[in-house]
User: Which sequence fits this backbone?
């Protein structure tokens, strides 16, 4: 199944990332880049963070006001529970270890002022999506530089 590409304004919207590892950090950083109000929920955070942090185990009440949630814990059952809660409550959810439990996926993104390049393989090959993004970005940069020289 291919995912419908949709660009959504998440500026100042409540976003929660549940998990304290590298995947959680990467997803939180992307959300911040697009202006979301990000809070990370984890008992232990394995990276330095300038985001809002709740150092605790996950509880449904923490995300009750969420617009968007990322479940990136190392516990499959917790991630599935988060997905079910979000779907039941109309909250967009990305589950890092299960495309099937997600209502959206992350593409490989690049941002330059008002231009956003996003490539998706519908979650089948994130490394291919990144390679394609990089090729597009190289082409864009070359053309941008040519236009600036004129």
Assistant:
């Amino acid at each position: 199944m291919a995912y419908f590409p949709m660009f959504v304004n998440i500026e100042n919207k409540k976003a929660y990332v549940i998990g304290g590892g590298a995947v959680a950090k990467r997803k939180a950083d992307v959300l911040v880049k697009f202006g979301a109000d990000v809070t990370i929920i984890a008992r232990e955070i394995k990276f330095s963070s300038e985001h809002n942090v709740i150092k605790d185990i996950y509880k449904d009440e923490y995300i009750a006001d969420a617009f968007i949630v990322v479940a990136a814990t190392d516990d499959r059952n917790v991630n599935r529970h988060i997905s079910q809660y979000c779907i039941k409550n109309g909250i967009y959810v990305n589950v890092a270890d299960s495309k099937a439990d997600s209502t959206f996926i992350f593409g490989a993104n690049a941002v330059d002022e008002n231009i956003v390049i996003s490539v998706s393989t519908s979650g089948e090959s994130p490394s291919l999506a990144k390679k394609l993004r990089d090729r597009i970005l190289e082409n864009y940069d070359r053309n941008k530089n040519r236009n600036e020289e004129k």
